[in-house]
TrEMBL record:
Keywords: GTP-binding, Nucleotide-binding. This is Mitochondrial GTPase 1. GO terms for cellular component: mitochondrion. It comes from the Eukaryota. It holds the Pfam family MMR_HSR1. The keyword GTP-binding applies. CDD domains: YlqF. Signal peptide: none annotated. One of its GO terms (biological process) is mitochondrial translation. GO terms for molecular function: GTP binding; GTPase activity.
Length: 342
């Protein structure tokens, strides 16, 4: 190894350790009206639901849990689906499966691009429907989860494999695409299985941004900074080569400058377009260009600590009233829109 390479390597390891914690000024509060309304509406419709598919993100097995769903789901039968499994290391699956089994949660891992993978959900739904044809003349499955975990993509995939029909739910790379509950979307003829899509619901106040800034928040600048911080701490992740830039850095400003130059993200007049570079970086991560990563610590103590900590704060009276009004408005809207999907 040349002296130059040795210096580069040692610089690289110093830089990787430059930040040992992630600082963020304030707690994050991103809980738009449609989420409140959606949560309320889910509760209202729950008595007509036979199975809840609680969708989470395999790259953040803990941080994609929203414990507000506990109140809504209650004792209803639940299947936990860790989606985007193609973007997470395969080795985490068994760990997560065991940790969730300790908490009585049945878990599946899915990738919405693979039919065989999503069919596992249909198998569970089918088994329930066939177990009591009188009780379940049609099985209604509600898909819930945090924003952007892939709920709508799952529904489309199930419709594709179940009845060979096209997209029924809108999907998108950014969180917050689905704004209201859908009508019942048919995904299987015999036994009859229907799915209900729901808007992603965020935790109303996140007291600990380190624990919660993962792939679901709206503030892209913070998310990009957090991502850089985490990527620097992963051994063996070479985001520089993946992006075609030289040398790692722990400074998000410097990093975005480099990336912006590389991809030609320029505003009129030649000034660097930081937002464009930020979005490019996040898209690359979401597309799995830095390899299969898991951003949560999954040793037994961390998992236990997660479940001990309550991140859930009750909604204020004002928020509840607002949610009620919004739910009424959206119910009328969705009823009108969804008739032709069943
Ligand atoms: N790699 C990968 N990407 C996925 C998978 N499932 C969904 N996606 C992508 O994730 C993004 C979000 O998908 P959506 O289905 O819109 O997510 P959602 O949970 O409905 O989001 P909201 O409606 O905003 O709550 C889209 O860009 C999808 O293409 C998956 O299994 N693997
Ligand atoms: Mg959606």
């Amino acid at each position: 190894m040349s002296t130059h390479d040795a210096v580069q390597m040692s610089l690289k390891s110093c830089l990787r350790l430059a930040r040992t914690s992630f600082e963020h000024e304030k707690s994050i509060s991103w809980f738009p009206g449609h989420m409140m309304a959606g949560l309320r509406e889910m509760g209202d419709q729950m008595r007509t639901v036979d199975l809840v598919v609680e969708t989470r993100d395999a790259r953040i097995p803990l941080s994609s849990i929203n414990r507000q769903f506990e109140q809504v789901i209650g004792s209803k039968r639940r299947l936990v689906v860790y989606n985007k499994a193609d973007l997470a290391p395969v080795a985490i699956q068994e760990v997560v499966r065991q940790e969730m089994a300790k908490r009585n949660q049945q878990v599946l891992f899915t990738n919405t691009n693979i039919n065989k993978s999503v069919n596992k959900i249909l198998d569970v739904a089918k088994a329930i429907a066939l177990s009591d044809a009188v009780k379940y003349p049609q099985l209604v499955v509600m898909v819930v989860g945090m924003p952007n975990v892939g709920k709508s993509s799952l529904i489309n995939a199930l419709r594709r494999t179940g009845i060979n029909k096209g997209k029924a739910a809108n999907t998108g790379a950014k969180p917050g695409v689905t704004r209201a509950l859908s009508g019942r979307i048919r995904v299987l003829e015999a036994p009859a299985v229907y799915l209900v899509d729901t808007p992603g619901v965020m935790i109303p106040h996140i007291p600990d941004p380190i624990a919660a800034i993962k792939d679901n928040i709206a503030d892209e600048a913070v998310l990009a900074d957090y991502l850089l911080f985490r990527l620097n701490r992963f051994e063996g992740v070479d985001y520089c080569s993946a992006l075609g830039i030289d040398g790692p850095t722990d400074d998000i400003g410097e990093f975005l400058q480099k990336l912006g130059k590389k991809i030609g993200a320029l505003r009129q007049g030649g000034e660097l377009d930081v937002d464009k570079a930020t979005q490019y970086f996040l898209r690359a991560f979401r597309a799995g260009r830095f390899g299969q990563l898991c951003l949560d610590d999954l040793d037994a103590d961390s998992v236990e600590a997660y479940f001990q900590r309550s991140t859930e704060l009750p909604l204020s009276k004002h928020q509840k009233a607002k949610a009620r009004r919004e739910a009424q408005r959206q119910r009328a809207l969705v009823r009108a829109q969804s008739r032709n999907l069943v």
